[in-house]
Amino acid sequence: MNNVEPGLLGFLIVAAIGVALVFLLISMNKQFRKLGPPPEEPDGTGADTGDDEPGVGVGDVGDAAAKGAKRR
Fold this sequence. Notes:
mainly alpha
């Protein structure tokens, strides 16, 4: 019978792929660090107003109450 084994060449190929993966992951982490946190929005333009539902403003209290929203 023929015994086919991966041998040294198969191991070297898998090891090379593993080393390349490590270098790619290191490079990806460096690129993510360059991005930094997202810029914060200035006050008054979409900042968190403490509403339970997004998009509900002061003038929409009646609509929110009709929808069953919680009041404070």
